[in-house]
From TrEMBL, chain A:
Keywords annotated in UniProt: Signal
Compartment list: Cell envelope
Periplasmic binding protein domain sequence ranges: 37-283
SUPFAM superfamilies, alphabetized: Periplasmic binding protein-like I
Signal sequence annotation: 1-25
Similarity comment: Belongs to the bacterial solute-binding protein 2 family.
Protein name: Sugar ABC transporter substrate-binding protein
Superkingdom to which the source organism belongs: Bacteria
Listed InterPro entries: Peripla_BP_I (IPR028082), SBP_2_dom (IPR025997)
Naturally occurring in which organism (per UniProt): Kaistia terrae
Automatic annotation (TrEMBL), chain B:
Descriptive protein name: ABC transporter permease
Residues annotated as transmembrane: 24-44, 56-76, 105-127, 134-157, 177-203, 224-245, 297-319
Keywords: Cell membrane, Membrane, Transmembrane, Transmembrane helix
Main location: membrane
Keyword rRNA processing: no
InterPro entries assigned: ABC_transp_permease
Source species taxonomy: Bacteria, Pseudomonadati, Pseudomonadota, Alphaproteobacteria, Hyphomicrobiales
Length: 336, 323
């Protein structure tokens, strides 16, 4: 009897040890790397984590703190750890190239969220981003329709990487496309920072008291612009167009302090990127394709339909049921 | 060998030159400030409007408070690179406390205490270790940046209720409350430096730490007190900035450490310590605010602004050094 009990105990112990390792063998491990501590990456990571939990995928998260060297170290560490794939918001193009070289050498597929460059597409598992050259265009078009003439100003992010410049240019293209005769009287940069945008907007309101619309290239800066307008006692008199569709931007729209925002929610984008990467790993998705990240213009009228940054688990489940995005021709710079 | 004539002539020249230099040095910053005011006022008459001048003071208020605290540290030969990250932590402590308790008073207390405690810990680390304040506070800066992200989960903590009504929108006699807070901080630091034992000890430690120790000054305790005092100022700035932005942000203090040190150095306090004034620091803070404001009002393109700002700051510092 004692011998039987002992044998059963040994069997149970053996099963307990072997079972998890068997399931681990089937479980995929994905490294999720974000460029820095920005809320955009954080919300993307949260949604990817929720999707990974539902798909039975293990997600290991890394942050490069906006440091390309740290990013490369993270890629190397993840490869050493034996991950099956890497999902990355890269810090810069140069760090992307270094990361892709490391991943290619190790045979680990790497999927990029933003940072599209023609030279890396073929070696990547895929790249997903919005069309940066046209990102501000729908916002400009919508603002242009509300402002047939008059003065407007723009506040963009940190110059030098190309995206901040492209957002403003595309916003202006949108204004022109709408048929509006409105003219730009000031183009300032506020480094994507709420406080700097507040300061810049205050100065715009002093220098150009007839300004009727301000475009902020992200919603964090739009919050600063809204505060500056409120401090100047002009709430409701100046249109504000933002970009990103962040929770605080949506809140401003709800309160009537912002007119609209061009949303590119990181939540659904990261969920789709994770699914595409897993597809590349199991061979059901062709690597090296470009995908457009979901985007939409959010106004007070369609708030309920907007994909939120802070996606609830049931929403993530719904996105997992939707068809996978299809590869598309990458964006090209406008000719103007 | 110098000729007797040259040698004989040198002290007199040096004295004369020193007097002129000191006078010029005292007024260099003022001259630069006036130059910017005049040029900008000619370029855009709205620059001198009360509204714009209040905007400038409002925009530099948090920096002015942080820089006031940094002044006494630099005078004492110290340095705190963690003030920006500490400002974020203090701001988040305020916003989170308000969010969870609904009490603005508790939020203010949390922010100020957080700043003060961080300062005191920095002081203890600096006072009891041989490593330079630069390295020690670089370490705490990195640590606190991580703490700020953990506290906020990487996202803004929005909504500060009455704090926004006061610091974001409120004013007294047309002057925004953060501006009063900045001038109060400068006044407090002026009094500390000019009339208290702590201020005198700060100058003594910055002038010659070993001599200060040998003369019986409790250098370690004084250093801890100085860092705690600077931390208190950072905590106050964190509370105010949280009110101004109606939110606590993990990145709200980014860059404050360098701008605060730049303002103090532009204001005439050398990095090696031993001398300096908080009034000079106020001049440095105003210079930073004025340059940015005037460029925007003069329509200087965004691509040029950083280069122009750097040139003006470098010129201001070099002119002072030369004088």
């Amino acid at each position: 009897m004692n011998i039987t009990r002992r044998a059963l105990a040994v069997l149970a112990l053996g099963a307990a040890v072997i079972a998890p390792s068997l399931s681990q063998a089937a479980e995929k491990t994905i490294a999720f790397m974000r460029g820095g501590p920005d809320p955009y990456y954080q919300f993307g990571m949260n949604a990817a984590q929720a999707a990974a939990d539902k798909l039975g995928v293990k997600l290991i998260t890394y942050s490069a703190n906006n440091d390309p060297t740290q990013e490369l170290a993270n890629v190397q560490d993840a490869i050493t750890k034996g991950v099956d794939g890497i999902l990355i918001y890269a810090v810069s193009l140069s760090s992307e190239k270094a990361a892709i070289a490391q991943a290619k050498k190790a045979g680990v597929p790497i999927f990029f969220q933003y940072g599209y460059d023609e030279s890396i597409l073929a070696d990547s598992a895929g790249i997903m981003q919005v069309d940066l050259y046209r990102f501000g265009e729908p916002v400009g078009e919508a603002i242009g329709k509300l402002l047939p003439e008059g003065e407007y100003a723009t506040i963009t992010g940190k110059l030098g990487r190309g995206d901040a410049e492209a957002f403003v240019q595309s916003f202006k293209n949108g204004i022109a496309k709408s048929g509006s005769k409105a003219v730009s009287v000031a183009d300032l940069a506020a480094d994507w920072d709420r406080q700097k945008a507040m300061d810049a907007a205050s100065q715009i309101l002093v220098a150009h008291p007839n300004v009727k619309a301000i475009y902020a290239a992200n919603d964090d800066m739009a919050v600063g612009v809204a505060i500056a307008i409120e401090r100047a006692g002009k709430t409701g008199q100046i249109l504000i167009g933002g970009n990103n569709g962040a929770p605080y931007g949506v809140e401003l729209i709800e309160k009537g302090q912002m007119t609209l925002t061009g949303s590119n929610p990181p939540s659904i984008a990261s969920v789709n990127a994770l699914r595409l990467l897993l597809g590349v790993i199991d061979g059901s998705v062709k690597p090296g394709q470009f995908y457009y990240a979901p985007s939409q213009v959010i106004t007070k009228d369609n708030l309920a339909d907007a994909a939120p940054w802070d996606a609830k688990p049931e929403m993530v489940s719904k996105w997992l049921e939707e068809p996978l995005p299809q590869g598309a021709a990458p964006p090209v710079p406008p000719t103007n | 060998m110098s000729s007797p004539t040259a040698t004989a002539g040198k002290p007199a020249n040096r004295k004369l030159g020193g007097l002129q230099g000191r006078d010029l040095g005292r007024y260099t910053l003022l001259i630069v400030l006036l130059l910017i005011v005049v040029v900008t006022a000619i370029g855009n008459p709205r620059f001198l409007s009360v509204n714009n001048l209040m905007n400038i003071l409002f925009q530099v208020s948090a920096l002015g408070i942080v820089a006031s605290g940094q002044t006494i540290l630099l005078i004492a030969g110290g340095l705190d690179l963690s003030v920006g990250a500490a400002l974020s932590v203090a701001g988040l402590a305020t916003a989170l406390t308000i969010m969870h308790t609904g009490s603005v008073a508790l939020g203010i207390l949390a922010g100020v205490v957080a700043g003060c405690v961080i300062g005191a810990i920095n002081g203890m680390l600096v006072a009891t270790n041989r490593a330079t304040p630069f390295i020690i506070t670089l370490g705490t800066m990195t640590f606190l940046q991580g703490v700020a992200i953990l506290m906020s989960g990487g996202s803004p903590i929005n909504g500060t209720g009455a704090l926004f009504d006061v610091f974001g929108l409120g004013d007294f006699l047309g002057v925004p409350w953060p501006v009063y807070a900045m001038f109060a901080s400068i006044l407090v630091m002026f009094v500390v430096l000019r009339f208290t034992t702590l201020g005198r000890y700060a100058f003594a430690i910055g002038g010659n730490e070993e001599a200060a120790r040998l003369s019986g000054i409790p250098v370690r305790r004084i250093k801890i007190a100085l860092y705690a005092l600077s931390g208190l100022f950072v905590g106050v700035a964190g509370v105010i900035l949280t009110g101004v932005l109606d939110s606590g942000l993990p990145s709200m203090g980014t860059g404050y450490e360098l701008r605060a040190i730049a303002a103090v150095v532009i204001g005439g306090t050398p990095l090696i310590g031993g001398r300096g004034t908080v009034i000079g620091t106020l001049g440095g803070v105003l210079l930073l605010g004025l340059v940015s404001n005037s460029m925007n009002l003069l329509g200087v393109g965004a691509n040029f602004q950083s280069a122009v700002l750097g040139l003006i700051i470098t010129a201001a510092v070099l002119l002072q050094k030369k004088a």
